Amino acid sequence: MNPLRTRRSALKALGSTALLAAAVTVPSATAAVAHERKSRPSVALDWYDATAATIAAAGAATQITNSRTWAISWLAAARATREVPPGVDRSAFQDAALASAVHDSLVALVPSRAQELDTALRTTLDRFPDGPAKAKGVAAGAREARRVLASREGDGLDPTSVNAPFTVPPAAPGVWQPTPPAYAPAAQYGNRLARPFLLAGPDQYRLPAPPALDSARYRADLAEVREYGAVDSTVRTERQTETATFWFGSSLTLYTEPLRVAVARSQRSTPGRAALVALFHVALVDTQIATADTKYAYLRWRPVTAIRTGAIDPDPEWTPLHITPAHPDYPSGHNTYAGAAETVLTALTGPRTAPFELTSPTDPGVTRTYTAWSQLSQDNLDARVYSGIHTRSADKAGLFLGKRVAGHALHNAERLFGVL
């Protein structure tokens, strides 16, 4: 897919090239920090934070379900803010519409947080005088929330459906088996049965098969993860261990702050900011669906199984640095997420930004500084090898798949925003 054509299609779907015109200019770190501290209060950021807090406090146990919550809420907001009725204050209407859309969507999807969300909505609406702009904005947000929620009814992304039962095939070379120490049942199999937002089907971008077990590529992959990913590795550096631990947590959690940075530094209007958040999460839902499709199509075993029981220098005692997640190796889900996130952020905000700091719940006390979205992807790629839970081929394939699915989302964004 032509990246320039993809970006142009996304810009067209989001309304106009003016919406994203400032994205390619990278301010200095000092200017960016000053702007973020002095800029007027932003309803978009307020509700971004409310969404993040809602999911952190009472979200679903399954990552894709939480991605769905983001996507629905902000797609409703992006649609509600696009068309301003004549004769009303544009800013007041759009802020009220965004707050109403996100509020109503979140209350429907996470009802246990209704009280906190109701309070947040009152706080937002109290900023504006009563009148047509506020009233029509609230009504528009409520209307679009209802529409988007109805359109996603029964999409198979609820926690029970996501973790649909999977029958593990008999043990054989290369075939995934439950992994130590818990030997837990397969997770996320149901993702590949779910209904995407924009993909024609879960298998639309299914990857080619992973490297054959008798290939030089496979031998190199296994040798690398055996040496660098072992819990007692003598070749992994302190920095590499930190990378593995820093990026071991949930991708949704780790990418919440980078996306917020992009939204906060954006000079776009309220609809433009809402569209950025919506497209990001729509692409990530579809990416996770496509990831599960490829994973369960090939059922490639994890490094711990390959090293302990495979034909190449088996070591029954080998243990990875981190516990292996309960699903197949190929491709890496962390890397499909990274590839999709990088693609959307690059297309809609440019490849670089002023330095920003990032922390991780799985590596308390450590702060990393980034200046380009691709740096997040590179750390993800390396981290899963250093953790001992993925081969490098699975990581590279993940980045490739995530970028393809996100490119598809950008190219077809008019289907999200072009028709209300």
From TrEMBL:
Membrane-spanning residues: none
Domain Phosphatidic acid phosphatase type 2/haloperoxidase: 282-410
InterPro entries per record: PAP2/HPO, PAP2/HPO_sf, TAT_signal, V-haloperoxidase
Pfam families noted in UniProt: PAP2
Signal peptide: 1-31
Keywords: Signal
Identification of the protein by name: Haloperoxidase
Organism: Wenjunlia tyrosinilytica
